Amino acid sequence: MLTLIKREIRDHVVYFFAAVIFSSILISISLTPISESRQHYRAVYGLGVALTITAIVISGFFAMGVGQMYTDKNRKISAFLSTLPVSRSRILIARIVTGTLAILTLIVPQLIVTIILLRLYAPPVPVYSGFIAEVFAGIFLTAFACYCIGLQAGWSSSSIVPAMGGFGLTCILVSLILIKGFGLHIIVILILFIIASLIRIRHLFTSTPL
Amino acid sequence: MDENVIKVENLVKYFDGRCVLDGINFDVPQGCIYGLLGRNGAGKTTIIRILLGLEPATRGETSLLGRKSTRLPAKIRGQIGCVAEGHNLIQNYKVSRLIKLCKDLSLNWNDGAFDHLMETFRLPRDRRVRDLSMGMRAQLNLSLAMAIDPELLILDDPTLGLDTVARRQFLELAIDIIQQQGRTILFCSHILSDVERIAERIGILAAGKLVVDCSLEELKTRVKKLRIIFPEYPPEDLYLTEIINRQIQGREMAITVANWNRQKQAILETFKPSSCTEVPMSLEDIFIECTRPDSEPIEAA
To answer: Which residue of B has its CA nearest to A75?
Structure first.
């Protein structure tokens, strides 16, 4: 399994580099004090950052899912690996683990910085104890759900139309979160969505001729 | 474990409503070299893909080393060496990286045997797979398949793209494997002389059916081509069963007949032919006769 995960990471290392770069940018933004003169732009500034993050999370992880599956299909990687002592389920698990690691590469440094900042400086508005966990769990699950849709679109699409359908579904999912906000209810919806997606991907991946 | 390493039972496969395999049955016992022959599009590669679990069957069952093809565990896959048609290796990898991947994933890797093959074929390790010639890719694929000391070797047109010397090297290598007790080989090829050289048992696919399934020796004894000259025009019907092919030209009739025996000879003699001579047949001749659109399947003797 470790060999398969290493292979996936090496083949899709560009996504890890992108995650590291983006994570560094986010951390820099978090650490940059907003000047006094721009205080009243704080809300606009915050919204801008939130929308940028959202767009990158949607397109980045959706693209990663599509990229992993499309490359596999195009280069017949699974067809070759299946002639070795490897089952299709293990190939898929290795792929999903790699995707999860890429998401964590983006989120974990940001989480650590946020926790440190909250310890050092009191937040302007009081927050409840589970706030950080809920927000980061929500971000992780959103990214993972987008990634799952990407996996499905990349494997089942040979034309642009189903891929765009997948991208549309991702946008709807993220809009739902933007409207409803993070919370337990969204976490439950995302978990259910991810379980359904994973079942569908497994079925697609293991039943399609290689 | 069942002594049949490969089992194919009533295998049916449709592609877009077109029947490619129509009730195929055959077994390959342990240690046997089975040559599967057929024209382009006859379904040889489809059988191999179904056997390896890469393609689902429409109906029927196949198994390898006693396990169903649809559920081959890693342990069983680790005992099967495979050379696929077109050599579907990961094209953008460097040869050294591909070797490392296969080595890390294999359950049994024979470094000595693999290095020997790499040296024999003079394969570069620092080039990308896509930069290798077709022949070199075939050699690399063969080397990777052989390096795991396979219990079962599945070769789908392995010599495609190899030059004469490399083809000879491969065949000698295959014979080496055969000499290691218990190794089984399923060998598909268009080059009939290769199959004739190493196969013990032959299966011929034509029009979705397995028209021949017997040992090479038996096939050569059972199938006879006769050139018969009659004093006048040849009769409309010879009342012989299992005539695979018949051609008439003037007073001469050429027939290819399966399961030739004394009884059939006696029936033929009732027509009082002027002469009847046997035409020697190579595997290629038999193959051509069996794969003619109007030929009849050869049933078991």
So the answer is: B90
Q: ∠A25-A26-A32 over CA atoms, to 5°? A: 90
In a domain, B299, yes or no: no
Percent of the residues in chain A that have a pLDDT greater than 90, as a whole number? 9
Look at residue B158 and tell me if it is in a domain. yes
Select the residue from B51, B58, B76, B90 to test the A interface by mutation, using most A Cβ atoms within 10 A: B90
Checking if the pLDDT of B5 tops 90, the result is no
Is there a domain that residue B288 lies in? no
Q: Are residues B129 and B16 in the same domain?
A: yes
Name the band, by pLDDT with cuts 50, 70 and 90, for residue A95.
very high
Count of structural domains, chain B: 2
pLDDT in the model for residue A169: 73
Does B84 contact chain A (CB < 8 Å)?
Answer: yes
Range of the domain at B102: 4-215
For residue B116, being part of any structural domain is answered with yes
> Is the separation of the CB atoms in B155 and B51 below 8 Å?
no
Give the pLDDT band (50/70/90) at residue B160.
Answer: confident
Count up the domains in chain A and report the number: 1
* Same domain as B171, residue B68: yes
Q: With 90 as the cut, is the pLDDT of residue A101 above it?
A: yes
Q: What is the CATH number of the domain that holds B43?
A: 3.40.50.300
Q: What is the percent of chain B with per-residue pLDDT over 70, rounded to a whole number? A: 92
Which of A72, A84, A207 would best serve as a mutation to test chain B binding (most B beta carbons within 10 A)?
A84
**Which residue of B56, B84, B104 is in closest CB contact with A209?**
B56
Kindly state whether residues B126 and B97 are assigned to the same domain: yes
pLDDT exceeds 90 at position A93: yes
Enumerate the residues of chain A whose CB falls inside 8 A of the CB of residue B57.
none
pTM above 0.80, yes or no: no
Q: Say yes or no for a CB contact (<8 Å) between B90 and A77.
A: yes
